[in-house]
Amino acid sequence: MMLKRTLLIFVIPLLLLSTGCARNLQGDVYSRDDARQTQTVQYGTIEDVRLVVIEGTKSPIGSIAGAAIGGIAGSGVGGGKGSQVAAVIGAVAGGLAGAAAEEGLTKSQGEELVIRIANSNKIIAIVQAHNPSRVFSIGDRVRLMTVNGEVRVAQ
């Protein structure tokens, strides 16, 4: 019983922390590594905008946490008779549920921006997280900032 409590104390916070590790993909959010770095700036015009889905993370943390919780829950079934089988079934089901939960919790709304680069015939597309307070429209003039190989679009 003590082992079950100890596992729950460590596994549940680990699962919760794993969802907080997802990167923010909005155009106005910078990582610590990007701060104070020289950026290349280009200008362009929005040719097309469409909403897309950015899939959630698929790390092993959700599966492991779900398997641990499912195994613990399954081992309590049957009052000692068949508890090992129930623990295995609970672990497998919990692992699948944990993986699905992690992906669902970290999925986000994105936007695909098709941009014509100024002073060239080049057209590019960039996907970044959708920010409802900063809506892009066809014809908007935008800045494209590239730092550490990542491009973000801002008005």
Q: How many discrete domains?
A: 2
The portion of residues assigned to helices is 25-40%
Biggest sheet statistics: 5 strands, antiparallel
Number of strands: 5
Number of helices: 3
Percent strand: 25-35%
Element order, helices and strands?
A: HEHHEEEE
Radius of gyration: 22 Å
Strand order of the largest sheet: 3-2-1-4-5
Low-confidence stretches: 15-22
The N- and C-terminal alpha carbons lie at a distance of 57 Å
Mean pLDDT: 77
Q: Which outline best applies?
A: elongated
Find the structural class using helix and strand composition.
alpha+beta
Q: Would you kindly provide a written description of the structure presented here, covering whatever features stand out?
A:
The chain is α+β, with helices and mostly antiparallel strands and 155 residues long. The chain folds into two domains: 1-23 and 56-106; 31-55 and 108-155, RNA polymerase II/Efflux pump adaptor protein, barrel-sandwich hybrid domain (OB fold (Dihydrolipoamide Acetyltransferase, E2P), Beta Barrel). It contains three helices and five strands, in the order H-E-H-H-E-E-E-E. It has a five-stranded antiparallel beta sheet with strand order 3-2-1-4-5, with no helix packed on it. Strand 4 and strand 5 form a beta hairpin. Helix 1 runs antiparallel to helix 2 (60-75) and helix 2 (60-75) runs antiparallel to helix 3. The termini are far apart. The relative contact order is 0.23. Residues 15-22 have low confidence and may be disordered.
